[in-house]
Amino acid sequence: MTIINQSGRISRYASKVVYSSLFFACIAQADLGPNLALDAGADGSSKASGSSYGNAIDGDMASYWQPGSSSDERIGVKNIGSSFNTVIIRELNGATTGWRLEDHDTGEVFASGSTLGSERIISGFGDQSLYKINLVIESASGAPQIAEFEVYSATDSGSASSSSSSSSTSSSSSSSESSSSESNSSDTSSDSSSSESSSSSESSSSSSSSSQPGTPGEVLSCEQANTVQGFASLGAGTTGGQGGDEVTVSTGSELAAALSNKGGAPLTIYVDGIITPDNSNVTKFDIKDMNDVSIIGVGDNALFDGIGIKIWRANNVIVRNITMRYVRIGDKDHITIDGPSSNIWIDHNTFYNSLDVDKDYYDELVSGKGEIDNITISYNILRDSWKTSLWGSSDGDDYDRRITFWGNHWENANSRLPLFRFGEGHIVNNYYDGVISTGINSRMGATLRIEGNVFEDAQNPIVSFYSSELGYWDVEDNTFNNVNWVEYPSDGVIAGPDVQSTTSYLPPYSYSRLFAADTKAHVLANAGAGIVTDCLDAPVSGGGEQSSSSSSSSQNSSSESSSESSSSGNSSSDSGEPVELGSNLALSGGADGSSKGGGTSYGNVNDGNLASYWQPSGTSGERIGVKNFSGTFNTVIIRELNGATESWRLEDHDTNEVLASGSTLGSERIITGFGDRDLYKVNLVIDSASSAPQIAEFEIYNATGDVSDGGSSSSSSSSDSSSSSSDSSDSSSSDSSSSDSSSSNSSSSSSQSSSSFPDYSGPLSNDCVELATNPNVNWRDTSLQSDQEIVECLAQTLGRAVGYGENALGGYDPNGNSTLTVITKSSSDSVEQQIFDAMSSEDHHWIVFDKNDFAPETEVAMYRLHCSNSDVLSRIGGTEAECVDYRQWCSNRGYNDHDQCLEEFFNNRLDDKDLPIRNPVISSNTTIDGRMSNAYFRFSGFAIGKDSSGQPTQTANSVILTHLDFRGAGHTEDHGLDPDMIRSTGASHDIWIHKNTFDLTGDSAFDVKVGAYDITMSFNRVVDVKRAALHGSSDSREINENITTTMHHNAFVTRDDLYFDFGNTARRVPLIRRGTSHMWNNLFMNYRKDIISVRVGADLLWEDNALVINGDFQEKDDINSALDELQGNLTRDVSGGSYRADGVYLWFGNSACDINASTQRALTDASGSVGDLSQQYTVASRDTINDFRLDAGQDLIDYVSATAGKHGELPFNSPLAGDIYYVLSLGKVPCQ
């Protein structure tokens, strides 16, 4: 860091203070040369049993040195035999928390830092000729595992200006002369900052002069303005669309088209106009699954009015010189960044909402979540906002993100300036003007460097509030004017009034900043859109090329992304001719497997991070698969950390064809020779291992060059092990999938084109958003007046089903013949009659409830349609009026207790199969939509289709039932009226049962019978229902082979009050005969036994479902015995068909479904073979599953609890919904 002083102040601060870390920019393109350590010796302070000093210099990532303790331990490389200037340390377990690199003989420290990570590259200490160089472990969370201590004499690296040498750092403290009232400035000479918490992105601007902030009060020069500051300068640098294609747009539709049509070249989009929801065909602009994009405003003309940008799974993105305001659609953020994404620069923009609305009316201005890194937010105005800038969506969003906030003007804002969870942040030279509640909120162990800022008219400008773990700050030279410090909450911490550092931290890049006394004038002159319009033709990146996380350091390759190994540069085939691997396709795919050990995840194998890994629970018959990646491939690289594998094979998931096989894997197994493949999923099968293997990365490439067709694999770790040819195994003859049991009806309809659907991403006008979200705006109170306009709006805002029911359109007719039916209380017909008349027509009817009439809670009971029937009146012994108003009937007969009334009237008097009361039958092309009404259905619901003696008599297709509330009268076994709430039957199909609530129903929540197929049940809340979802009512009915259902994100809950009353009777989720069902990401609370039953050859796939039981109901003396019993009973009834569970877990928890992680048990019952049923869905459904499926765990439990049911938060189906982590950030919703 260089402190830039005003004229006349240099004499007071003559010292130039430089803090810099390793700048890999200068060595990324250098030739490292050979690893000198391979020919040297090693010694150390101690070694744990089974490890060796020599393991650190043997070139084998599977071996390591581990000391006997976690502090003051040493490993040294000696007799190097040549000068060197670069060291690379590779640590396996990430345990180190403090280290230094030093000359053994003199004790001179060349570099020091905190974490090491999987690849710590250390340079900048000049050429050294030493007998021995030591790595000293000062502190660690456990005994570290140092796999390799590599030493190089790199060429062309000596010019690096990024010396990591702490000994060359001059000392200067600026606090004594600062105008700040703060008295805690740190002596900055003691820390070298050469350590960086992430080893995969360690390069920066090599020109410190270009990063100087200029003269206070004057506008930056174009050179200064176009130089990327802070974390975004690391890694590959941030250049956006520079040097590529350019296009100018003036409407949102043109902007969306430009993004959609982006090819492989970088792209700069110049925005010259006002972008609104009305001139856009999307609800947000997705920069998704693409790299190298700039969005640049032209002059003062770029206004995003009511619509925002989402940067999602994208790298190297720039957004500059635009104004955004009043965003309520899409993710409701102006700009949101979701991972994995890196190298993002948000610069010289203006963002604002309004404080004259409820705090939840808008969401964030600029925010980020998930696995994001190397981000700079600079010279923006962020004002008039309740919730301003959130980084880390929940206390479980524990990625080590790194963000710089530089030169921003935070004005008239309530909180989150920023809110920062986990990771590292640098907040420098910002001006805070009007902080209403809290300013910077450091939470969950976040480490922030806060320096050179001005806080005026602010309450609690620096705090750690509202999380279970505190965050930390290192403060220097900040000014506080008219600041109020208020101590709340009880578990929170405020920094003032005597502001002191709680940690010591310096960011891993060189930088120059102003004194706080000069910050305000500088920010006011430079922040916001319209300031640097003359400088926007060619942004200048400060970054070099990013280092790769290679396990083979002798290769001289550099790559564009930290997630690509060194082998992604030039490799060679068996013939020795060069091969260009290209990009790692696995990074864009998903992952699943057979099992996962505690704390590991399937997704760890395709996250580009060698420090994370997948580890199965066993040592044989285990599988990890990478799926849904795009494009053909011909090369696979497996990276194993612990060298445990003894036998493996690579195979096509769908056919079991073996592409390659071998014995050991080692640190880098390169597999080729199986030709070009285009597969949905490729599996690595661990046939045997000495212990549970640790697979760090499963990389997939479409390599160009001479890729061998010979059928053997090459490996850097085991030259004597070759894979078999792709035809070497006869296992491909086995049947890996039972998906053929699905009916031809279901498979054909599920693969239909979606061209008849409304555009679910828009266009959504403001009137449409109001209509779909505001209970005070009735159905015909906007500019949308025609039935077709209103119904299309309702279809768009509801979204689209995922899975087998994905083609359900309900009452929406894309040909323009949709009818909106509004149920009112003012009609001469009863509410029930109005519903019946509309749903009995084959015409397209979208049925809603008048928002004003049904604002009060209103009971609807379809049995009332039969209250004029003499048999019914005779059975109840009452009048028609008493039949319609059963409460009056009860009162007249002395049944004054409500539950007693329900039991007597519905389960005694009406329990007669000879009565004409049956569920009314819904016809095709119908939606019943209960949004923004408080109507509920009592006792019974609807049939979709009709049957007689196991044969269809009426078939309905395209039916949607959504946002409805069904309340039973208590369960009565074999009730004569069969009071299901929703029964799909008679070969009906294309059905979506979505976001309904079912409470204490007399029979099922949603049964499927007599060959009904292509049905999705999603986000429903099923409470105290004993028989939730029967699939097929008789063993003998072969038509039920056609049944296909998808059930996802439903909450099946037995409340604590009924846990013992229900005993073991809550089940059938589902009981399935002959058909096929796919259940993923569902929540089960307080289910004890036989949740599922698989019979008569049915297929059931359970994926990533979570089961929780209130620990208060543990029924054994020993918790493990209780878990053993539950584990054995819950999914045992599967032998009658084919069943597979993948990622399904059980926990004890509390009544709110907060799980006790130590009680986790996998449910692994299995029978027969079930393939990947999602392959029967359209690409749209598969993409949605890939984007939104969560591993079973607390986040899934909390998300389902918050979204399931009529009154839950909007789920991801709707374009109006926030993403999963936005929902989680709203706060805990108890599951019952």
Automatic annotation (TrEMBL):
Secreted: is it a keyword of this entry? yes
User: Out of the domains of life, which is the source?
Assistant: Bacteria
In this protein, which residues make up the domain named Pectate lyase?
A: 242-461
Its main localization is secreted
Q: Where is the composition biased (Gly residues)?
A: 590-601
What terms describe the molecular function in GO for this protein?
pectate lyase activity
- List the GO cellular component terms: extracellular region
Any Pfam family hit: Pectate_lyase_4
Q: Which GO terms are recorded in the biological process aspect for this UniProt protein?
A: polysaccharide catabolic process
Give the keywords, sorted. Answer: Carbohydrate metabolism, Lyase, Polysaccharide degradation, Secreted, Signal
Q: Where in the cell is it found?
A: Secreted
**Bias-annotated ranges (Low complexity):** 156-211, 546-589, 712-756
**Residues annotated as region Disordered?**
156-219, 540-602, 707-761
State the signal peptide span.
1-30
Tell me which family the UniProt entry assigns to this protein.
Answer: Belongs to the polysaccharide lyase 1 family.
Show the PANTHER family listed in the entry.
Answer: PECTATE LYASE 18-RELATED (PTHR31683), PECTATE LYASE 21-RELATED (PTHR31683:SF18)
Q: What protein name applies here? A: Pectate lyase
Q: Which organism is it from?
A: Marinimicrobium koreense
